[in-house]
Amino acid sequence: MARLAAGRFATLSSGSPGTDGRHGLPLCQPLGMIESPSEAPLMGATSEVGRLRTVLLHRPGAELRRLTPRNNDELLFDGVPWVDRAQEEHDAFAQALTDRGVEVLHLDRLLAEVLSFPSARAELIAAAVDDPRLGATLQRSTTMHLTGLAPEDLARTLIAGLAHDELRGGKGLAYEVMDRGDFVVPPLPNLLFTRDSSVWVGDEVAVTSLAMPARHRESTITAAVYAHHPRFAGVEQLYGARLEHLEGGDVLLLAEGVVAVGVGERTTPGGAERLARRLFARRLAHTVLVVPIAQQRATMHLDTIATMVDADAMVMYPAVADSLVAWTVTAPDGVADDADTAELAVAGPQPFLTAAAAAMGIDRLRVIDTGLDPVTAEREQWDDGNNTLALAPRLAVAYERNTVTNAALEAAGIEVVRIAGSELGSGRGGPRCMSCPVARDAPAATDVRSIASATGPVPEGTR
Ligand SMILES: NC(=[NH2+])NCCC[C@H](N)C(=O)O
């Protein structure tokens, strides 16, 4: 499988497309609605800003119609979205990406496709009924119901969940006792935020371990798609759904070999450590910066307060720009031979911007000065103003509603692709949260304006 040239510190092996080892299918055989490309696709990412080639999205569907004022808190939405409008907004987001040459993969379609494989079906049905609320009898009757569904219907049910009165042949004490409106299989409205359940580092993918109960099952879906879909044949998975908590929204690829990991409400220090060990062992990073963030909903992930918009620049919530710190974690000899036991060197804490620039080998990591008054800054941070998705250096998608942040980005030379998000935003996630980059080019050397020796005037609007 062809890979990005710069995914690893040692030379990358590039195999050739053949059969996918697990199902014996030729990689080029059309599968379901999507034809596999005739050439093996590029996969992987070493930065946040290299030209985006392929992205994984999830168009919100029936799972959002499950949200009510009684369950929205538990399901991590701040309200009850108008679903048709949320879908229109999402379609426009996907279109904005397609218009700029980005290939959009849809998670629900990939899921329906892998569900024609018996092993993938069995795995995902088992994950859906693996719930102590149900009891053995209801688990059995739910398994039978799900087993009888065609791939498309099963995909829909795994995402939208299964309500008590939708289950044909439901049996068991738990079934009798449950309320008619209860879910036998709870819905996954946060699947919309594809950023969190998997993250590519170099040419490997970390299927994450999500912290909130409402999201646990999401990574069983991404794990099955990466394990079984011919599109991803040969891709190594470097993390796992049952390990220490780690969410993709906390993982920022600052530069090739340099990964920042936020630790707070979602990712634990143990998750950051495990990821660091695995990245070092697989030579996918030489430095991991561990960045504590406030454990509260407004700052649930590192990407809610800062995202990269250029190879050497970030947009950052001004209230934290000067107080954010990082611990610098390295493997003593640059690599760790054993992912689980290797000794790690930990230094710090240091101001985040200082530690990041040092790890990236640049003079300065610029912060776009959004010049916001504290109240506007707080409002726009809450509405994901700092949660941008870079399509290339200095070209980023952002919610249109954050007018002041977007104006500041433009003043600093960042082209902003504005999208509507009034309904999508009720899940508290912006363009970066709603996207998982599967392939990015390495940012061209010319895009890094302040690498080591380069000195020059500081561009306006940066500090
Ligand atoms: N990468 C992100 N910031 N994702 C936002 C996820 C929002 C989602 N409702 C949650 O609470 O988990």
TrEMBL record:
PANTHER family xref list: ARGININE DEIMINASE
Alphabetical UniProt keywords: Arginine metabolism, Cytoplasm, Hydrolase
Protein's name in the database: Arginine deiminase
Family the entry assigns: Belongs to the arginine deiminase family.
One Pfam assignment: ADI
Compartmental location: Cytoplasm
Annotated catalysed reactions: L-arginine + H2O = L-citrulline + NH4(+)
InterPro entries listed in its UniProt record: Arg_deiminase
Highest rank taxon of the organism: Bacteria
GO molecular function: arginine deiminase activity
Predominant location: cytoplasm
Gene Ontology terms describing biological process: L-arginine deiminase pathway
Keyword Oxidoreductase (UniProt): no
Stretch list, region Disordered: 1-23
EC identifiers of the protein: 3.5.3.6
Pathway: Amino-acid degradation; L-arginine degradation via ADI pathway; carbamoyl phosphate from L-arginine: step 1/2
The keyword Hydrolase appears for this protein: yes
Enzyme class: hydrolase
Any Gene Ontology CC annotation: cytoplasm
Entry annotation: catalytic residues: C433
SUPFAM superfamilies per UniProt: Pentein (SSF55909)
